[in-house]
Amino acid sequence: MAILLGLYTLGSITSIIVFVLLVYVSYKPVKKYVQTWREMMPVPGMEGAFPIIGNALQFKSNAGDFFNQIVEGTNENRHRPLVKIWLGPIPFLVLYHAETIEPVLSSSRHLDKSYPYRFLQPWLGTGLLTSTGDKWRRRRKMLTPSFHFSILADFLEVMNEQSEILVQKMQDHVGGEPFNCFSYITLCALDIICETAMGKKVYAQSNADSEYVQSVYKMSDLITRRQRSPWWWPDWIYNALGEGNEQAKRLKILQSFTANVIKEKAAKKTAVSDKESDHRPRKRRAFLDMLMKLADDAGANLGLEDIQEEVDTFMFEGHDTTAASMNWALHLIGSHPDVQKKVQTELQEVLGPAGHRVGVEELKRLSYLECVIKESLRLFPAVPLFARRICNDCHIRGFKIPEGVNAVIIPYALHRDPRFFPQPEEFRPERFLPENSTGRHPYAYIPFSAGFRNCIGQRFAMMEEKVVLSSVLRHFDVEACQSREELQPIGDLILRPEQGIWIRLHKRAV
Question: How many angstroms separate the Cα of 171 from the Cα of each of 138, 184, 186, 206?
Fold first, then answer.
């Protein structure tokens, strides 16, 4: 009896200790959660939020359905200045008006990316996209000169070459049945970014089944699925029960590839003088070559790990976004023959015969094509939503927003504000002619974000889109084979059409 009593007492003590430890560990997070919940009560919110789990159960798990919910929600709440939602215990503030977005993006305080961006770190480390604070400021300052127009012009040769390969691949479809051009454009963009970022050809357009190419696509899918599923956010759960093993496999392929390229470059730099002979043709530069020469204000160079972070970031950000933008543009151009004719007339006037490559001066003169690209990005921004962390208590439209809240900015909804874009669903490239853009709110159109943390690669993206689209439209007449309603956009990391972009090609007389 005494033994049983002793065991009972021991069990009770153990239970009390466990209970006390649980209370101790959870006290501060729960206290912070309750405090934030109370502070945000005046902010209009999505109905049906429960304590702790918030609105998580109300969101669809399917990517397309989830994005439709976001679009419908912003349409229904356009009269509201902002809306709050809770994903589990984490508060999100949804912003889709220029006046509420400006205080966040224009501030030098709210520069940190939101919590879900941490799931990119296993792949990208803390490079320019995911870093915060002083590291981000130093890195941005170091990298900005590498994106000067005069340096980016060196990449035109690669863009022209890969566009010519794309045209050759598309020739097989001229006069034939409709086909999905999405993968054609995406593989071309992947070839361009690999050669410009690393100085390495991957021949994606010729070998779409390569392990590296497939891993790029798979990692993006894994990350977006995890971001939408709060129950997979804890690493130990994701690695034990989720897709952690698949992610580890893909990461090894991607990072080994990049690391080997960097090591090869570093070895060549050590073995061969950087100074080229006057009799040798000038070598093509890649971002990687520039990264290996960069130094901060103290004269310190980037380490190999730092370089890998930025190269992987360029690879991730530099192909998917641009590929999606070009696909959406082709659909819109193919749906509006009058616009297509104007673009092709401009191309003929500026570039002449189809065999003439796009140069620096020609890029500047393709003004109507630039309007077409901008209007395509208005209707279908490559990044349909992104998020920042509110780093200090602030007020937005009279509402107090406490530190730690995640601000979700939705360009897809912002770009459809009828105050700035009348008949917002209509495709009108003329909106972006200089005389029609004067006086527009500076935060009404942000396809490349805005403020201190805007996209460093936006000039590169615009150059690539002009080169690739001009190559396609100089050789072919494009006919869209889907209505706008059939596109069914999916808002993952990148805005994609659920069933691809289906077009028919007709030979042009050039």
Answer: 46, 12, 17, 15
E-state strands within 177-277:
179-180
Residues written for the chain: 510
Residue 297 has what DSSP assignment?
Answer: T
* Topology (CATH) of 28-274+282-507: Cytochrome p450 (1.10.630)
Do 372 and 427 form a contact (C-beta atoms < 8 A)? no
Half-sphere exposure of 378 (CA within 13 A, CB side): 26
With contact defined as beta carbons under 8 Å apart, do 220 and 122 qualify? no
Give the 3-state secondary structure of residue 213.
helix
Q: Report the phi/psi class of residue 391: left, alpha or beta, with left for phi > 0 and alpha for psi in -120 to 50.
A: alpha
Q: In the numeric block, which tokens belong to residue 230? A: 């709060």
Rounded to an integer, what distance in angstroms lies between the CA atom of residue 194 and that of residue 204?
9
- Which residue's entry shows tokens 């990148």? 494
Could you tell me how far CA 304 lies from the centroid of its own chain? Answer: 24
Residues paired with residue 495 on neighbouring β-strands, in sequence order: 491
- For residue 394, the Cα-to-chain-centroid distance in whole angstroms is 27
Over its length of 510 residues, how does the chain's per-residue pLDDT go in tens digits? Answer: 544 444 445 455 555 444 444 444 444 667 777 777 788 788 887 776 777 777 777 777 677 788 888 888 888 889 888 888 887 778 889 999 999 999 999 998 888 888 888 999 999 999 999 898 888 999 999 998 888 887 888 899 999 999 999 999 999 999 999 999 999 999 999 999 999 999 888 899 998 888 888 888 889 889 988 887 878 888 999 999 889 999 999 999 999 999 999 888 888 766 655 555 444 555 677 888 888 888 777 777 888 899 999 999 998 888 889 999 999 999 999 999 999 999 999 999 999 876 788 999 999 999 999 999 999 999 999 999 998 988 888 899 889 988 888 899 999 999 999 999 999 999 999 999 999 999 999 999 999 999 999 999 999 999 999 999 999 999 999 999 999 889 989 887 789 998 899 999 998 865
Give 113's contacts (C-beta < 8 A, 6+ positions apart). 129, 130, 132, 387, 388, 389
CA 408 to chain centre: 14
- Strand order in 406-409's β-sheet? 83-87, 90-95, 406-409, 386-389
Intra-chain end-to-end CA distance of the chain, in Å: 101
| Paired tokens of 395 | 């007020």
Which of 98, 87, 320, 312 lies closest to 220 in space, CA to CA? 320
Q: Where are the domains of the chain?
A: 28-274+282-507
pTM score:
0.89
